[in-house]
């Protein structure tokens, strides 16, 4: 074996990378375990402990804090942890109308309405649709008349053509989406979500947001859908505000009760990370220093605010005495203490001490490397309490570099805004010895407070500071946010309760372990010592998969775990291919060493072809899918790459080592030795029988399709709301459906049992097209009213909403995914095997498989004790089934190609071709059956133990596995005969 040294080096290097990536999970697990031990079930104490550890260094070698380590671990998805995800859609229709000055032109507004209708029906590019619709309504109309103005004259001329206007609108639309992303991310960060996942869905006007652990969905919806408001305020200096803060502190010392003071003292202790020393068995000085605790308690009584919750910006002066640092920041507080500070400042006796011209605002994000937020004192100069300048005064902003090549932001004001900006900046820069700042405020949080150096008369400002390039890009987007509001609406959401998440973790891990044990036992039993080599490679492969996922920062979901488990099943395929070829070589009388080398050599082509086809389908799944489907595709693709490395290269190294030591290597035992020998099934001769069987099943499926009024589409494909409800007793589904329909004003309430008899899945289209802000609340109120009348206690464990717009896009993506997969497979086989009949035969088999799976779904829907819905996960299952079929088909094609090469022919015809195809099918039958059985065993284990939420998905894979095996043996390869025009003697 050549390159053994390089393979060993790569294996060790990959192992180190994986170990490093997984080490963060180990560190966070240990910290969180100590937090649980300390809290003893008290969630508030556990959170306080973890807050105290945020800036503590917990990774001894690298010196990383808990907060830094936490951000690098494998994150769990909502289905494993509980939480909420939403898909936000930026209203490009309202953006376009705003850019046109909210024109009342009838044709313009009709074009907007028509474009939105087409978008809802599955259109992709709103701007293209709008321009096209306007040109239909006004053939010679000039769009520049609506959009060109003095403020954007640099980007758009009054004489611009419609295509130039379209380009301008597209840029503004993309910019609006980017700005919305920044605003939403700032809001989520302010909400305090741990490890949020945000993604712009490329090619669309949507943003996907995943928030693990969040359950307050009404608060989230209000937070995300509120309009962004950009403001510019003058600020007080720290020296001006200190007397007010001191007066507040003295008043609080008189009025705050001792119990509150004691609690503040305990929080002060937590702030320094001292809670870590209070765990059981701790020996740190903090655990024993009761005098320090007493001093903190006394300080909290005498100074409840300053130096207890709020730290002043202090530095040591030249005389060695503490001095107030000049500037706009008046104090700092830890994130967990900001709410307490707000509560103190909101007390009636304290509000009376604060001038009406002053209001406090927090910074948008913590100071670098800490969890401390800055407090600013905003100066209110108008009688109505409005800001000096609002976001509509900003014409444009862009990030760049100053003359010293440091990142900066250039801001351009409108003509009206420039006059106000001149006055504001003149006042801020009036005192050369005490230049003041102006606060840039977004959603009542200070995003930046740059110090003004000089009066700015022309409305063009340069904002500099200790910025990174990402900071200036974000700030530029924020400055543009107030100019052209593009409302963001939630078009789909998914909420999972923590109990359901824990149940998913337990069932997912159980299925993983059991499936893994099944595979190990099967390989060890069937292939004896060689099976143990495959098992070692499999263990290494699982380690690699988890390490690579951690390195990529992947979010692990339940479909992702299913993808890993399936990868385990598929990874043995390479070893089975190799071992079966070795057994063939041994049967020819070759020595073990020669047989192993020949087995690896002859199996390599089939292994590469089969893995490449599945990898391509995984990529297609990732591109066209979203959410759980992408999670499944990610783990599948990663698993295929690591499986090739582990199953082929590492197992080869182990065999080479065993051969060097002259170890006895066996590939069978007395039970399996004669399996699959001397097989001679006439697959080609019986192909017409197989065609009839498939036709009967498909016809039956079509009949049931019409009988059932179509396929049972999930909310992914038709829109609607779905709720998973668990009751304390069994209920009649028809009675529940009737009760809920009455509460839903006659709208359908589809109720099905899922898993246990007391768990129901409720789906309804009630108010799904209602765009009102309170539509979700109306539906949930009607649901709860109906459930309350059933006479049973219940828990809503998860909910999902998908609007018809999203559903339309998902259907389009699903169709494209299947069609594109077929096209790619045809091209790949055509290139690899040089015969169009092989490519077309494989594609026909793929369509055959899809039709059979759909037919079984229509026939068995309502018969099985779980819903068979057509949704995104079903599409993932279909594409995976297609991958199975392609894997097995190309392996047979590889054997045909090999046999032709041995005979020195390009092709065979007539009866000779029939014999060749039968030979190829029979000679690879052992591999086909063994691989199918191994994957089938894995799927059965996941089906039984993997949880209710993926049972329908796994069922699709189960029947798909059976259909795929049947199709590859009886349809795809035999059909090549019927596609050959030169076939003369087929019987």
Automatic annotation (TrEMBL):
Protein name: Multifunctional fusion protein
Every Protein translocase subunit SecDF P1 domain range: 178-235
Residue span, SecDF P1 head subdomain domain: 383-486
Topological category with respect to the lipid bilayer: Multi-pass membrane protein
Compartment(s) of residence: Cell membrane
Species per Swiss-Prot/TrEMBL record: Pedobacter ureilyticus
Top-level taxon of the source organism: Bacteria
Family: Belongs to the SecD/SecF family. SecF subfamily.
Keywords: Cell membrane, Membrane, Protein transport, Translocation, Transmembrane, Transmembrane helix, Transport
């Amino acid at each position: 074996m050549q390159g053994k040294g390089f393979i060993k080096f790569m294996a060790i290097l990959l192992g180190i990378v994986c170990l490093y990536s997984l080490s963060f999970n180990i560190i966070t697990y240990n910290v969180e375990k100590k937090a649980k031990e300390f809290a003893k079930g008290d969630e508030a104490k556990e959170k306080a402990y973890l807050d105290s550890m945020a800036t503590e260094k917990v990774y001894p070698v690298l010196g990383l804090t808990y907060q830094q380590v936490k951000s690098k671990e494998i994150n769990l998805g909502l289905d494993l942890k509980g939480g909420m995800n939403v898909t936000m859609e930026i209203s490009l229709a309202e953006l376009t109308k705003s850019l046109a000055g909210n024109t009342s032109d009838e044709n313009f507004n009709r074009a907007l309405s028509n474009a939105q209708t087409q978008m809802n029906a599955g259109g992709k590019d709103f701007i293209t649709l709008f321009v096209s619709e306007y040109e239909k309504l006004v053939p010679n109309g000039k769009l520049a008349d609506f959009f060109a103005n003095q403020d954007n004259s640099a980007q758009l001329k009054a004489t611009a053509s419609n295509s130039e206007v379209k380009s301008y609108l597209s840029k503004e639309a993309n910019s609006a989406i980017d700005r919305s992303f920044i605003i939403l991310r700032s809001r989520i960060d302010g909400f305090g979500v741990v490890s949020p996942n945000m993604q712009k869905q490329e090619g669309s006007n949507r943003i996907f947001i995943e928030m693990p652990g969040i359950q307050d969905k009404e608060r989230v919806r209000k937070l995300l859908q509120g309009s962004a408001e950009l403001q510019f305020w003058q600020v007080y200096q720290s020296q001006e505000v200190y007397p007010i803060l001191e007066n507040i502190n003295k008043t609080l010392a008189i009025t705050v009760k001792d119990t509150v003071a004691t609690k503040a003292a305990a929080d002060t202790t937590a702030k320094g990370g001292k809670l870590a020393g209070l765990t059981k068995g701790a020996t740190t000085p903090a655990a024993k220093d009761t005098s320090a605790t007493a001093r903190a308690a006394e300080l909290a009584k005498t100074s409840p605010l300053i130096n207890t919750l709020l730290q002043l910006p202090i530095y040591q002066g030249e005389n060695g005495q503490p001095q107030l640092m000049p500037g706009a920041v008046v104090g700092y507080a830890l994130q967990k203490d900001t709410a307490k500070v707000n509560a103190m400042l909101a007390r009636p006796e304290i509000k009376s001490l604060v001038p009406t011209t002053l209001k406090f605002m927090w910074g948008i994000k913590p100071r670098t490397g800490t969890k401390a937020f800055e407090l600013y004192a905003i100066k209110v100069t108008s009688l109505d309490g409005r800001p000096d300048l609002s976001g509509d005064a900003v014409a444009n902003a862009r990030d760049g570099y100053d003359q010293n090549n440091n990142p900066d932001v250039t801001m351009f004001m409108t003509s009206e805004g420039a006059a106000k900006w001149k006055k504001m900046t003149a006042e801020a820069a009036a005192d050369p010895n005490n230049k003041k700042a102006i606060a840039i405020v977004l959603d009542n949080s200070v995003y930046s407070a740059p110090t003004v150096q000089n009066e700015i008369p022309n409305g063009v400002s340069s904002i500099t500071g200790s910025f990174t390039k990402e900071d200036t890009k974000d700030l530029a987007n924020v400055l543009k946010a107030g100019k052209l509001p593009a409302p963001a609406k939630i078009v789909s959401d998914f909420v999972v309760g923590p109990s359901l998440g824990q149940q998913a973790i337990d069932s997912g891990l159980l299925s993983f372990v059991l499936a893994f044990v099944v595979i190990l036992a099967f390989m060890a039993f069937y292939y004896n010592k060689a099976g143990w080599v495959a098992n070692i490679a499999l263990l290494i492969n699982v380690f690699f998969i988890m390490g690579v996922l951690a390195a990529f920062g992947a979010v692990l979901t339940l479909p992702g775990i299913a993808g890993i488990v399936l990868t385990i099943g598929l990874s043995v395929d390479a070893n089975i291919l190799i071992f079966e070829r070795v057994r063939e070589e041994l049967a020819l009388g070759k020595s073990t060493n020669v047989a192993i080398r020949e087995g690896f050599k002859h199996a390599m082509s089939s292994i590469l072809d089969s893995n490449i086809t599945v990898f391509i389908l995984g990529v297609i799944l990732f591109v066209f899918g979203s959410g759980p489907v992408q999670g499944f595709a990610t783990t599948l693709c990663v698993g295929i790459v690591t499986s090739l490395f582990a199953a082929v290269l590492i197992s080869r190294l182990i065999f080479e080592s065993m051969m060097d030591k002259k170890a006895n290597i066996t590939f069978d035992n007395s039970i399996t030795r004669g399996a699959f020998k001397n097989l001679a099934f006439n697959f080609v001769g019986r192909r017409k029988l197989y065609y009839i069987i498939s036709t009967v099943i498909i016809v039956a499926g079509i009949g049931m399709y019409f009988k059932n009024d179509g396929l049972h589409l999930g909310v992914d494909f038709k829109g609607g709301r779905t709720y998973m409800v668990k009751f304390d007793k069994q209920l009649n589904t028809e009675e529940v459906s009737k009760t809920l329909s009455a509460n839903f004003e006659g709208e359908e309430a589809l109720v099905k049992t899922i898993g246990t008899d007391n768990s129901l899945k409720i789906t309804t289209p009630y108010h799904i097209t209602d765009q009102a802000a309170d539509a979700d609340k109306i539906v949930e109120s009607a649901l709860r009213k109906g459930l309350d009348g059933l006479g049973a206690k219940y828990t809503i464990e998860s909910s999902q909403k998908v609007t018809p717009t999203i559903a339309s896009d998902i259907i389009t993506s699903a169709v494209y995914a299947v069609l594109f997969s077929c096209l790619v497979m045809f091209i790949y086989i055509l290139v690899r095997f040089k015969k169009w009949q092989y490519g077309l035969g494989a594609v026909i088999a793929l369509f055959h498989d899809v039709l059979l799976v759909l037919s079984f779904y229509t026939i068995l829907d309502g018969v099985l004790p779980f819903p068979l819905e057509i949704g995104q996960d079903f599409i993932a299952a279909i594409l995976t089934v297609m991958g199975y079929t392609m894997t097995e088909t190309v392996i047979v094609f590889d054997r045909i190609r090999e046999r032709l090469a041995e005979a020195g022919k390009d092709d065979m015809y007539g009866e000779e071709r029939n014999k060749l195809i039968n030979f190829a099918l029979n000679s690879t039958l052992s591999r086909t059956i063994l691989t199918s059985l191994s994957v089938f065993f894995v799927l059965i284990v996941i089906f039984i133990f993997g949880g209710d939420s993926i049972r329908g998905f796994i069922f699709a894979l189960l029947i798909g596995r059976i259909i795929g095996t049947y199709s590859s043996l009886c349809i795809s390869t035999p059909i090549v005969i019927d596609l050959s025009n030169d076939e003369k003697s087929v019987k």
